[in-house]
Amino acid sequence: MDLSISSPLIAITAGGAGLGLAGILWALRVSHGARGSAKKYRESAQILEDKLARADSVFGAHPGVILVWEEDGPSNDWGDPRVYGSPVALAGMLRFTDDAMAPDPAVRILEGLGDLEARDGAGQDATLRQRLQQLRTEGAPFSLTIIGPSGRFLEADGRTAGARAVLWITDTTIKGLEESGARGRLEEARQVVARDPTAFLEMLGKAPFPAWRLSGVGKLQWANDAYLEAVDATHLDQALDRQIMLDKFVAPQGQKALAEGGEHSEVRHISIGGDRRAMRVVMFPLSGGVGGMAFDVTEEEHARETLDRHVKAHDETLNHVADGVAIFGADRKLVYHNRAFGEIWDLDPAFLLERPDHGALLDRLREKRKLPTQSNYAGWRADELAYYQGEKNDVAESLWNLPDGRTLRVTRQRHPLGGQLLLFKDITDELTLRTEYNALIQVQSATLDNLHEAVAVFGADGSLRLSNRAFERLWNLESDDLDAQPDFETITAACAPLFHDKSVWAAIKGRVTNPSPEARQEFRGEMKRSDGKTVTFLTQPLPDGATLIAFVDVTASRRVEDALRDRAEAFEAADRLKTEFVRNVSYQLRSPLTTILGYAEFLESERNAKLAPAQREHVTSILQAGDHLSKLIENILDLAMIEAGRMELDLSDVNIRKVIDESIAMMVGNASDTEVSIEVECDKKIGSIRADERRIKQILFNLLTNALKFTAPGDKITVSAEKLDGVVRLSVTDTGRGVAYERQAQAFDAFNSSDNRGAGLGLALVRSFVQLHGGWVAMRSAPGDGATVFCCLPEVAAPQIDRPELELGPASVAAE
Question: pTM value?
């Protein structure tokens, strides 16, 4: 048999149309000879020779052998095939044969492989002999994987080329796998195949993951069931005929694996069964092509993406934390730090990006004078790095007092992945606030301890939070017992011997422990204790949910109040007796006084008889004394009515200048008798005020009368009036002997006379009448330098009746 690959028929057969090309060549030769165009023939022949030569070179590079049957049917069991291929490929195929077989290499190969166990792409058992018979008789194409001796695998593909049958046989296993570098797996495969030749093929065919084989040019040659299911192919022939790839990147990846001469792995998202799955596609060189496997790593990719998102979120969260965070790996190199870490230490970002180790970081901070001052830096540094060797506790804290005045709390913790996690918290402000808070607490405690009131603060849970010494003394409690912060029930049990009314304690407890708005209100009450003391209490809710209870011992004040109440009642009774007495006496005196004045006036009229001069003088004296007594009685009655609050003003428009002139006219006679001059200093256009004209005249009359009593012949009395800012100021000034300083304070009191010559009602009535109008009075005097009495009246009277001072006591007590 001719094994040369230079024959044109070899290339033509390899291409599936050998005889057709030969016929074309023969026809060209005949045609050119007939035409006598030798030159054209030679040119055409040369072109065909070149094409055949190129086909020979490509065909010779095929790693297997090709058998071609040109007869229409078999002349014997195997027919008379012609074999084509490189000597190396032919020698490789002959290793599967026995030297005692027929000398024809093609028949030897077929005899050696024809009855070996094989399996087609659909997973059906078959033999090369059976499928080759079907190919030559029926033209049925096939693809078989033949399990050869010594654990070798061969691929046999049969096709028709016109009337010819063509068989490709290629050794596809051991050599390719060895070149892929998977020697350990190959050795295992050899052992499996040695034990059971079909096991390895079944393993690939029934594998739960897609597996396939591509030719060197990227054509699909074989695939397992999982592959067919993934690409929705019903059987292998359909996938091979249509060249259905797992995705469009399979062939390029196979070329990369061939070019790199080793395994090539990629993770891609591929649509399988209508779902988008993440698949790790692994391809590796095989003899004459590449093998591929795809593993579903969707869950792994999802977990990885979730982990990536978690890590990013974790990093982003830490970047917003105010505390500095640094993570060092097991190799002591910085693997992560947040923004706060860089801000705390003010380090160059480029230095941190270089991932310095822990020791180098400490050295850099020491160079910048940012670490706490250490007398033995080397020892301190070794202690810090000792946390990596497990010589320290898993979690440790320490305080670093930095040279710039800051204080950091450093927390070291073992990292789950090895290394350390360090937290740096700036607690400078916290320490400052704590110091200020402690000082404030001390001030508050000292303040509470110096309070007279007993104070206790209870939390919302009823436990005692704070109390002062007055609380301990008031209820006879021990400070050691209160330091344990007992609950409200314990406190009330200790206080029960002094006050045992449980209903009151229950009401107070409701204000302490009941969180409702109705209960969180101020509550007051009074306790009558068994020791005779009276204690008032007040509950006040605090903003933090606690309740303050203040206790005050009011025993002494209650006794004083009782005494004042008794005294006030006594004074009130005396005042009532005085008022009734004055009223009765005044009315009782008026009747006989009226009779006396009537008879005196009758005698003065001399209707019955003439009076002697001495008699006339006596009658005149009787009339003057009676008139004075009448006025005194009237003053007493007016004062009694004012004090009783029953006097009402008869308001009208009163011309100030006019009422002054009329009042002076009433006093001119007395003034002339005493040789005292009276002057007026008042603008005639001063205008009017809204007042009781009769009472204003009484005011001026009493002031002038009082001034005449303290003047001597030759003295002067001045009456002045002025209006300013809605107030009219009336004043009477005399140049008499004045009023002693010690008597000025009582000058306006009733029944008080500076010269002991009168009842002392004049200035008292003046003050009462002025106050009725809503004004006030004052005096300015010096002994031997005269006196001035001022009366300030509102332009429009605002009547006000002041109750007697003694009547305020009972009212005040009742209010309390």
Answer: 0.36
